[in-house]
Write a structure and sequence with these properties.
With 90 residues, the protein is mainly alpha-helical. The chain is built from 7 helices and no strands. It is globular, with a radius of gyration of 14 Å.
Length: 90
């Protein structure tokens, strides 16, 4: 449709404040930690991103990669390269 544009700032805000993004984070922190973060986010209203950072489960750069919209909407694991990099370091 002509004349309709997405408000990228608002879209980013809605994604960042959705508990649903925990699905993309789960492979990186494990099911139990992801579930605990999701529950806390729902209980407190804090964002998943801020809780992940507070708990030092991932850093800002890693979250930016994992929560990048294109990564989250393609098949596979969002941020897969981080998992591979970490596996090589073991």
């Amino acid at each position: 449709m002509k004349g309709i544009t997405a408000n990228e700032t608002r879209c980013r805000y809605l994604v960042e404040n959705s508990v649903g993004i925990i699905t993309a984070i789960c492979p990186h922190v494990g099911y139990q930690k992801a579930a605990d973060i999701a529950k806390k986010a729902m209980k407190t209203g804090e964002s998943v991103r801020s809780l992940i950072l507070q708990e030092k489960l991932l850093d800002e750069e890693e979250l930016d990669i994992i929560l990048e919209p294109t990564q989250m909407t393609e098949p596979g694991i969002s941020g897969k390269e981080l998992l591979l990099k970490n596996a090589e370091g073991l």
